[in-house]
Amino acid sequence: TFSLERLSSEMGIGTSKLSQLINKESGRNFPEYINFLRVEKAKKYLIKSDFSAYTIVAIGLECGFNSKSTFYAAFKKFTNVTPSEFKES
Prior knowledge:
Strand content: under 5%
Largest sheet: none
Structural class: mainly alpha
Radius of gyration: 15 Å
Number of helices: 6
Order of helices and strands: HHHHHH
């Protein structure tokens, strides 16, 4: 349920201004930026021994992805490898 509107409301800044700031600073639109952050978090979980009992899908869900396919697609987009390949390397 995280959205640009919710974030802008919580920060007390207009949605268009916040969107411009995110685009300028990250070079990505809001959904891409959020997915990028989720993938970065997933990468940490995939290499941490604390999460070794988690399935790759469980890690994706833990990081905010709604499905295996969405998680795999975003992961591959930002890393050029699948989560399984990343974990093995």
